[in-house]
């Protein structure tokens, strides 16, 4: 129903009885938007900001959860697709880890690292990784990036495929993923690891 809201921050609350949230004024309507500590701390000083939102609809209530980037919002939605993971726990996980850290944990299947997040025990961490890894890296539905014109030939093709799969799972088109990967690899900054290529590909795409 909503993709993003653009407006002025009226208030920011980290620890209230409603949980961490912001109030965003959009055309004289104040939207109360749940969010995490990481998002609140990174809200820019601009007079007007864009908040990417996710609408949750329960039998007796509706609520919005928001983030400063589309990627964070999409990861939040993916986390909530795991049975037993609600808004509160998904936000706690995202407060503990950045997007690239979280995706790297999924790729490495490092449930011990994931269990550092508040409220996530070893069994829950294993369940999250088991259910989410295939959603983040869907190998069978991705056409590999053509790397013939990428100068850094020493980069493992599997690393490139991992990055491409994750970018597409986050909603980017194959052409957008390919453009970002080539831009980062050809930047001559020596990126060879999947997590580095992914991190800077996301930064590149966020500016487009």
Describe this structure in words.
This protein is about 45% helix and about 20% strand. It has helices at about 35-40, 70-80, 85-95, 100-110, 110-115, 120-135, 155-170, 175-185, 195-205; strands at about 5-15, 20-25, 30-35, 50-55, 60-65. The longest helix is centred in the middle third of the chain and has 15 residues, at about 120-135. The chain has a five-stranded mixed beta barrel. A hairpin with a 2-residue loop joins strand 2 (about 20-25) and strand 3 (about 30-35).
Cα end-to-end separation: 24 Å
Which stretches are low in confidence, meaning pLDDT under 50 for 5 or more residues running? Answer: none
* Broad structural category: alpha+beta
Specify the oligomeric state. single chain
Count structural domains. 3
User: What would the principal axes of the Cα set say about the shape?
Assistant: globular
Give the helix level as a range of percent. Answer: 40-55%
Indicate the proportion of strand residues.
15-25%
Q: Major sheet, described briefly?
A: 5 strands, mixed, barrel
Mean pLDDT: 82
- What's the helix-strand series? EEEHEEHHHHHHHH
Question: Strand sequence of the main sheet, in spatial order?
Answer: 1-2-3-5-4
């Amino acid at each position: 129903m909503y993709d993003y809201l653009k407006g002025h921050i009226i208030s920011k609350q980290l620890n209230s009885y409603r949980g961490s949230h912001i109030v965003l004024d959009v055309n004289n309507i104040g939207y109360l938007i749940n969010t995490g500590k990481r998002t609140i701390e990174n809200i820019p000083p601009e007079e007007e900001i864009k908040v990417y939102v996710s609408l949750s609809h329960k039998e007796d209530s509706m609520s919005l959860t928001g983030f400063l980037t589309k990627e964070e919002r999409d990861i939040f939605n993916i986390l909530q697709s795991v049975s037993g993971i609600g808004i509160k726990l998904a936000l706690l996980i995202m407060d503990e880890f950045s997007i690239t850290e979280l995706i790297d944990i999924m790729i490495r299947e490092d449930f011990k690292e994931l269990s550092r997040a508040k409220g996530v025990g070893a069994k829950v961490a294993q369940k999250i990784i088991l259910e989410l890894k295939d959603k983040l890296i869907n190998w069978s539905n991705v056409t590999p990036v053509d790397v013939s014109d990428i100068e850094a030939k020493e980069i493992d093709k599997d690393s490139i495929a991992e990055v491409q799969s994750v970018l597409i799972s986050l909603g980017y088109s194959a052409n957008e993923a390919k453009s970002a990967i080539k831009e980062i690899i050809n930047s001559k900054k020596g990126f060879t690891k999947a997590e580095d290529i992914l991190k800077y590909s996301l930064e590149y795409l966020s500016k487009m």
